[in-house]
């Protein structure tokens, strides 16, 4: 695993954990996918996950978490 893949894996892990903690389960799923794709070295899946991340941010920028989900 190259340093770049390891970096993306770590970022995906942090996105997954933090977003779950703060009530954003959909974003947590995206983070899990980023982490898994990086761990596997799967560039296609990684690109799809990055696209999903961009889409989530575009659709949810400024949204507050639902305190009853987490």
Q: Which sequence of SSEs, written as H and E, runs from N to C? A: HHH
Strand tally, please?
0
Structural class: mainly alpha
Please tell me how large the radius of gyration is: 12 Å
Report how far the terminal alpha carbons are from each other: 32 Å
Strand content: under 5%
Stretches where pLDDT is under 50 for at least 5 consecutive residues are none
- Percent helix: over 70%
Number of helical regions: 3
Which geometry do the CA atoms define?
globular
Structure description:
The protein has helices at 3-21, 25-40, 43-60. α1 (3-21) packs antiparallel against α2 and α2 (25-40) packs antiparallel against α3. It is mainly α and 70 residues long. The model has no long low-confidence stretch (mean pLDDT 89). It contains three helices and no strands.
Please describe the structure with a list of short key phrases separated by commas or semicolons:
0% strand, 70 residues, mainly alpha
Topology:
Blueprint: H1 3-21, H2 25-40, H3 43-60
How would you summarize this macromolecular structure in one to three sentences?
The chain is mostly helical and 70 residues long. The protein has helices at 3-21, 25-40, 43-60.
